[in-house]
C-alpha cells in the first residue's frame, strides 16, 4: 500500500471485522476470497484476491462526486442532470481516460481541486453547464466522471466508456479562467 493513511486504516478494519456483530459481513467477504493466480516457483499462490464489484465502486464514486459538487457550488446536483462515473484502479497518465480529462480541463475555464491528507484528492473543471471530475483514492484508485446540467433534450448519446467525450458548442467562445 502506498498511503500511510490506508496502512493505518487496515488494522482498524481488521479489528472491526472480528466483532460479533460483523460476523455476517465477515462471512460474506470470506466467501468471495480466492487464491491469487500469481504463484511462486513451486506453484503455490502468493496471496489471495477478491473480485471488484465495479457497479458498487462506481455508485460510491457517484455519491462522492455529488457531495463534492455540493461542496464546490453550494447547491445539490440538479435532479435533471446526467451524472456518469467510471472507476479505474491504477490508471496510467498516458491512458485514454486521463487524456480525455485533460482535454476537457483545457476546454472548461473554471478549475477547482482539493486534498484530504494523503488519502483522497480531486480536481474538477466547470463550463458550458457541465463539469468533469477526476478523483484519486489512496494514490491508486481513480474515478472519472461528468455532470451534465443542460436540459435533458440537449444531452448527447455518448457511450458509457466515452463519458468525457465533450466538446464546446461552436457558437460559444471558450471560457477563460
Quick overview:
The chain has helices at 4-17, 23-32, 54-73, 96-107, and strands at residues 34-35, 48-49, 82-89, 110-116, 120-127, 130-137, 141-148. It is α+β, with helices and mostly antiparallel strands.
Task: Report what the structure shows.
By secondary structure, the protein is α+β, with helices and mostly antiparallel strands. It folds into two domains: 46 residues, no CATH class; 109 residues, no CATH class. The protein is built from four helices and seven strands; from the N terminus they run ααββαβαββββ. The strands form two sheets. A five-stranded antiparallel beta sheet has the order 3-7-6-5-4, sandwiched between helices. β6 and β7 form a beta hairpin. The two termini are 37 Å apart. The C terminus is likely disordered.
Largest sheet: 5 strands, antiparallel
Number of domains: 2
- The order of strands across the largest sheet is 3-7-6-5-4
Structural class of the secondary structure composition?
Answer: alpha+beta
CA-CA gap between termini:
37 Å
Q: Based on CA inertia axes, which overall geometry fits?
A: elongated
Mean pLDDT: 81
Helix proportion of residues, in percent? 25-40%
SSE arrangement, N to C: HHEEHEHEEEE
| Assembly category | single chain
Q: Which features does this protein show?
A:
177 residues, 7 strands, 4 helices, disordered C terminus, alpha+beta, single chain, two-stranded antiparallel ribbon, 2 domains
Amino acid at each position: 500500500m502506498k498511503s500511510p493513511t490506508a496502512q493505518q486504516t487496515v488494522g482498524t478494519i481488521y479489528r472491526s471485522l472480528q466483532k460479533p456483530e460483523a460476523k455476517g459481513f465477515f462471512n460474506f467477504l470470506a466467501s468471495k476470497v480466492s487464491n491469487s493466480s500469481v504463484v511462486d516457483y513451486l506453484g503455490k499462490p502468493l496471496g489471495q484476491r477478491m473480485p471488484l464489484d465495479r457497479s458498487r465502486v462506481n455508485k460510491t464514486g457517484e455519491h462522492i462526486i455529488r457531495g463534492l459538487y455540493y461542496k464546490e457550488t453550494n447547491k445539490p446536483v440538479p435532479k435533471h442532470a446526467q451524472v456518469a462515473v467510471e472507476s479505474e484502479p491504477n490508471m496510467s497518465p498516458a491512458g485514454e481516460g486521463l487524456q480525455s480529462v485533460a482535454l476537457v480541463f483545457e476546454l472548461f475555464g473554471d478549475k477547482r481541486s482539493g486534498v484530504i491528507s494523503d488519502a483522497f484528492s480531486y480536481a474538477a473543471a466547470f463550463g458550458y453547464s457541465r463539469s468533469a471530475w477526476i478523483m484519486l483514492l489512496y494514490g491508486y484508485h481513480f474515478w472519472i466522471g461528468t455532470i451534465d446540467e443542460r436540459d435533458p433534450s440537449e444531452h448527447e448519446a455518448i457511450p458509457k466508456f466515452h463519458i468525457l467525450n465533450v466538446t464546446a458548442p461552436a457558437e460559444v467562445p471558450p471560457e477563460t479562467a
